[in-house]
Amino acid sequence: MTQQQQTAGGDVRLAGISKTYGSFTAVQPLDLTVPQGSFFALLGASGCGKTTTLRMIAGLEEATTGTVFLGGKDITDLPPYKRPVNTVFQSYALFPHLDITENVAFGLRRRGIKSVKKQVDDMLELVQLGDFAHRKPHQLSGGQQQRVAVARALINHPQVLLLDEPLGALDLKLRRQMQLELKRIQTEVGITFVHVTHDQEEAMTMADTVAVMNGGRVEQLGAPADLYENPRTTFVANFLGTSNLIEGEIVSTGGDLVVAAGGGKLTLPRERCSAPTTSGGRLLLGIRPEKISLAHADDADDIAAGRNRVTGRITDSSFIGVSTQYVVESPAGTALQVYEQNIERDTRLLPGAEVVLHWNPAHTFGLDAAQDIDAGATSVEDAE
Ligand SMILES: Nc1ncnc2c1ncn2[C@@H]1O[C@H](COP(=O)(O)OP(=O)(O)O)[C@@H](O)[C@H]1O
Ligand SMILES: [Mg+2]
């Protein structure tokens, strides 16, 4: 590490980085800063430009426009091997004929370092594979092999570790374990991780900051909870978890915003609205399924004053253990989603029952109605 890099910090900064293939733009000009030591996730559906962005940071892909800075230093024209950056791919590509020790030692050997034992042992301990040092890759599980790949990259002491869907080949349970494991490793070594994934739960579990990408652009960037609670576009609202989006017309802008929707009036705090708030304008009201309570219509009088209410009829319910998920048809929306925790279940809440959905107006967010209400709603997992 040069003096210059140290004084400028180790942030990765992309300035106007873009990539076009012929007439097709895979990554639109992108400005992005990844703070040193952070766990940063690039999240988006297949084809949105995540890998291309990562490869431009690694130097494996030449940027069409823009500059890549690492710690204030322009590295745009450095070849990959001269960048203090390592990449872990989904296909971990371990050397099958070498044991785990030699796989991890590879980077050191290549640089002519002879005494590798201490460093390899430390790395294997970091990824909790000390007992497997003399096995061959095929004698390890998928998750263990992926940890070897991480150790093999980290032994080079990169300033930045790039991970491209590294857990994509693992089954769900193992993937969950590895998410926590990678997070632990990152916290322990303190190196910047840039993690690419199409799995929103994975991004939220692991990352300090998530950049949601869509069509070669970063649509929104923030801490997971902030993105979830305050999506600014329908794409983010639908892609990150599930949102109910109700279209309405602004009828009052005095204090809180009042919106006429589905034959009733709904309220939301003005500061939670990312759209223009002129009276008469249209708005999409967003409310997350777990923030809604469900009352049988017979109990409507018991609902506290001041809550947003929508009347409707249950069309579907699925019991999934920790919660029951209802689909409700109403004038405000044909398929509103409500998740109720299974504490004391109201046995009247069955398909066909007339119900009132009610929630705290403060939990409502507002989006510009001039957007595709269904953007980001199709799960990529379904598409792949
Ligand atoms: N070498 C290439 N030539 C032409 N198009 C490419 C090339 N590499 C990627 N693309 C296109 O660029 C877009 C972004 O690709 P990629 O960055 O791999 O997406 P992601 O990793 O988000 O799935 C895709 O539409 C893909 O088909
Ligand atoms: Mg990719």
UniProtKB/TrEMBL annotation:
Q: Which one of the record's GO molecular function terms can you name?
A: ATP binding
Q: Where is the signal peptide?
A: none
Family to which the UniProt record says this protein belongs:
Belongs to the ABC transporter superfamily. Spermidine/putrescine importer (TC 3.A.1.11.1) family.
Instruction: Tell me the subunit arrangement.
Output: The complex is composed of two ATP-binding proteins (PotA), two transmembrane proteins (PotB and PotC) and a solute-binding protein (PotD).
**Annotated protein name in UniProt:** Spermidine/putrescine import ATP-binding protein PotA
Functionally, this protein is described as follows: Part of the ABC transporter complex PotABCD involved in spermidine/putrescine import. Responsible for energy coupling to the transport system.
Give the species this sequence originates from.
Streptomyces microflavus
Q: ABC transporter domain spans which residues?
A: 12-240
Keyword list (alphabetical) reads: ATP-binding, Cell membrane, Membrane, Nucleotide-binding, Translocase, Transport
Give the EC number.
7.6.2.11
Taken from the UniProt entry, a GO cellular component term is: ATP-binding cassette (ABC) transporter complex
Q: Which reaction does it catalyse?
A: ATP + H2O + polyamine-[polyamine-binding protein]Side 1 = ADP + phosphate + polyamineSide 2 + [polyamine-binding protein]Side 1
Q: Which Gene3D superfamilies match?
A: 2.40.50.100, P-loop containing nucleotide triphosphate hydrolases
